[in-house]
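Usage

Read records sequentially. Each one opens with the input sequence:
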Amino acid sequence: MASRAVPPHHHMADPIELVALTAQGNAEVEAEILLRQALGFDLENDEHDFRAYLSYVKIYWPGNETEDHFLRLFADIVTFLRGLAGEERPTIQSHIDYLVGDRHHFYFKTTPAFSDVREMVVKDTVLLILGLWTLTRSYFVPLHGREAHILQICSKQPPQNTLQQPPRDTIQQPRQSALQQSVYDIISKSGILPNPDEEPAVRLDTRSTQQDLEGGGLISTPPFSPHSAIDLVGSLSIPTKKLNLFKLKVLADVQILWTDNVSRHMLLSRRGQEWYIELFALPCAMQGGACDVLRDAVGIPAGLMYEIELSYANLFNPVPPSKTHRYAGMLLALPLWCWCVSCSSARLRRRHLAAGTKEEELPRWDQARLPDDPRLKEVTNREPVVWWDRTSFENLWPRIQALDQCLQGAKPWSFWVLLRDNRNTVQYWTFLFGTIVLVLTVMQVVLGLLQVTQG
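and closes with the structure output:
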């Protein structure tokens, strides 16, 4: 049975602060302070972010014991699995074993120690808390009686070549249980986080320049030429004016889904004939000191968290309005009807971030279980980076490419989309002038009929 490690001193709350805030015996306040310290949120600067994340945690309180006991257990598990600085990270199983054998634990006191029931309850609770902490809840919660998705991923044997069978006398090494690893190893080695080598979740008919870009040039580049047809860095950049949520929504009919799983941010998926893009709904969890804890203890790269934060502005605010447009908008109410990318994106942003939006207007998974995050409104209103490129978005680049390929391959799906689809300028202007001529012709026929009737 693994012994319980003593939490690092810098993880614990200041005793003076605890005494001051819990002088009236407020157990909930004390539990919140312990959780705040364990997660890394600063007591002064990260108040709003912590409150938003705390609301998210409380939503998934299982109902066992009291809510403050659940928060205290959350803080205890996070503190233990963060480990001591300079020492080997503790495994998940070591803490599960400790909780299973603790006869007087404040949260699991209703189940006998060392029993199968205690082990099952402890494992499910620990996995739930780990999912909330690592921002990958849906991968840690068992579904439909099956093992948690993250455990299935980490326990998979590497694929073997069926044409070359191993010798009979070869000793097969038993696979290591996912719970025998640390949280850092599970998240960083499982491959669930966005990374430059990620395979797309949905394979599109690329047949474009992707293979040529990987080779450093286009097909037309002659062999042995000292120069490629286009610079590699220049070819791997997409203007946000052409690739944003408004374009994806209008031209490709891509639906927006909000998720609490950071590993699914900007992931393009398909259900039947519908395309979906998933967006992480809790940027508050990656702010301040919590960002350092997620990087050092969970294994989420700081670069990835920075890319995710930058992506919101590129998606929701790709073209900020100019000063002239702002003044004209105040006089003519342009934000209500203007078809430009700036005004259209602003309307889409307000519609999908407005508090109290109806479920049919704002499709999101587990909508009732995702709290309102004020940080989300702030990051979506920032100035965009202007370009999607492989340098600024190294980890998200495969997903950005998948979105771009989906947009480029999308066909107009309604009459009104044809009026807004200017990707093919010849088709756009031909259709526009043809529509104008058709309208004028109809008007002329109607006027002629009126004259004949009056005559």
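Summary fields computed downstream for this record:
- Strands lie at 237-239, 254-259, 267-271, 274-280, 387-389.
- The radius of gyration is 27 Å.
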